[in-house]
Amino acid sequence: MIEPEMNHLESLSMLHRIFFGREGLRAGWSIGIFFILLGVCTAVFIFPTQYLLEKNNFPVNVIAPIQMCAGEFAVFLGLLGTSMIMALIEHKRIISYGLEGKRRLVTFLYGTLSGCIALSLLMGSLYLCGFISFDGQRLYGWNALQYAFDWGAAFFLVGLYEEYLLRGYLQATFTRGIGFWWSALLLSAAFGCIHLFNNGESPVGICSAALVGLVFCISLWYLKNLWWAIGFHASWNWSQSFLWGTSNSGMIAQGHLFSVHPQGNILWSGGTTGPEGSLMVVPLLILIVFLMRIVWGKFTPQQTRNEGT
Questions:
Q1: Within the chain, what is the greatest distance between any pair of CA atoms?
Q2: Where do the structural domains in the chain lie, given as residue ranges?
């Protein structure tokens, strides 16, 4: 009787090792559960939202702020619900997936200012090199303020959703399995691939998105939270779509302060993709990483490595 019992215990022990490591449920199983829950939770919110949006006739290739707010809020609720369930399973706080940290508002505002300056610097470079031409101001007074606020809310939701999706739970969990930098490369490539579904996207734009994602991972490495990246992400899109009125992955924002159009070689102007489709994004991102090293390099990043789970 002893031998069958020992075999049963060994089988249970082996089964436990398959599913659990030193940090609890293994990363691979956690990722699988996350995606299943994400699909279910997102469907709960996105289908009724799409039904309501389809009742409105939005212009083709033009993004309306209410359209974007509704869609992004719906998918964010799905992501938030999924993350809450995973936090309960893993006995963690939901903010532990990149939303913790001190002085979060200050860090977010710092990122917001950085994104606006970076995109404006890119636009200035394109203008000085003759790759874009300004067509003048389009909005004034109250209309300008209203659209500025509406697009600010919309792109805040975009930044919050995309950063929390790719560099929140997934980054933290992949790090348990394969280490921080391998997960950063993997999820940054995924961020670029997501842009394949954007109308008017180009190969340069897709690569640029992947590189920007890697920059956001570097900020996470230094700061241990996503608030700078969320602010940068939001204001980069806000500056691109509303402030300067450029094409954003082939889409034009409904209501933008200024208006520009590309000219010359599309590899440098970005063409219909917008400034993200310009090769001039690369030196800009290198400059940003260099400045990160200068400003944040004095802080020693917390070591994150594969713990063998």
A1: 88
A2: 2-296
